[in-house]
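Q&A log
Question type: sequence-to-structure
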Amino acid sequence: MKKNSKMGIEIMDKVAGTYLIQLNSTRAMVTNLFKMFKFR
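Response status: OK
Response body:
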């Protein structure tokens, strides 16, 4: 990564994007769980 910084930035961008997508889907699942329990 140190030798080719542009490639490193692209890799980190993909990693961050994947992490954010995972985080968002987890948040959505938790929100849905709370909604289910709230209605009962």
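Response note: The chain is about 90% helix and 0% strand.
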